[in-house]
Amino acid sequence: MTLSPEERRAFLDEPLVATLAVAREGERAPLAVPVWFWQEDNGDLLFFTEADSLKSRLVEAAGRFSLLVQRTEPTYRYVSAEGPVVSATPTTPDESYTDAARYLAPDKVDAYVERTGATGDPTAGLVTYRMRPEHWFSADLGSL
């Protein structure tokens, strides 16, 4: 059944990898790739990537994207959010740390942050995209 807003929020706080989907022009299907992401208190969803990547170019061109997060255990559950990009800013060390701390062992986080080169400077080559969800789809098939 459909998840409540509170259930969606709790699910998105789990360290699960999202699938980013973003439109392509022409006859190509949308790009769909895995990304690490995090959710802010106001519900915005964020991820960062290299500014010159295909992901970045497509997100900039489309101005919006979708994230799909799913799991298979203990029940199949998913949340999909779609909305506009409300900001695209140089990735800061704090954002890199927030991202890494969700997915990596504590003893690996500092090295990851250093390796990303996130400085908040546009010349560092990383951009953080913030999406404000407008449309949601969700379900927990174990609750049927």
TrEMBL record:
Residues 5-105 form the Pyridoxamine 5'-phosphate oxidase N-terminal domain. SUPFAM superfamilies: FMN-binding split barrel. One of its GO terms (molecular function) is pyridoxamine phosphate oxidase activity. Keywords: Oxidoreductase. Its EC number is 1.-.-.-, 1.4.3.5. This is Pyridoxamine 5'-phosphate oxidase family protein. It comes from Streptomyces evansiae.
